[in-house]
Amino acid sequence: MPRILRTSAAAAIAAAAALTPMFIGTTAADATPSSGVSAVTLAHTDIPAGLLPFVPKGAHVEVRQIKIEPGGTTGWHYHDADIYALVRQGTLTHPYANCKPVVYKTGDIIVEPGGKSNVHEGTNLGKVPVILDVVYVTPFGKPLSEDSPAPACA
């Protein structure tokens, strides 16, 4: 593996360890739609299987900047692996599957656990856009996120 790719992969993983949705998921029949959300990919690379012990099967690493406009929502979704984000601007209201919201403010770090049981939604109830820098370390062949119906409590 070329040194530059190893360095890039190591830097992306280091950023993920320090930092946490866009939504290129499959559409569930009862999924809740996103609105007012945009994303820009800042960097991406693939980590081959066996290169890093904590990613034994390899993974796709992508860093994205997510913008959620005032009144915007990501819709309910989940990720197939943990993601890491830094709230650069604004206040994100973030209910999980139990519908109890957690509020993240500028400077906060978000770690979202992966898996279907960890559905969540990000909503901007504030007056300024929410800006997130998000690191995804996704299994090969999986989307960055998967749309999901809202939980019964929503």
TrEMBL record:
Gene3D superfamilies linked to this entry: Jelly Rolls
Signal peptide start and end residues: 1-28
InterPro entries for this protein: Cupin_2, RmlC-like_jellyroll, RmlC_Cupin_sf
Pfam family, one: Cupin_2
Cupin type-2 domain ranges (all copies): 66-132
Keywords carried by this UniProt record: Signal
Protein's name according to its UniProt entry: Cupin type-2 domain-containing protein
Organism for this UniProt entry: Gordonia paraffinivorans NBRC 108238
High-level lineage: Bacteria, Bacillati, Actinomycetota, Actinomycetes, Mycobacteriales
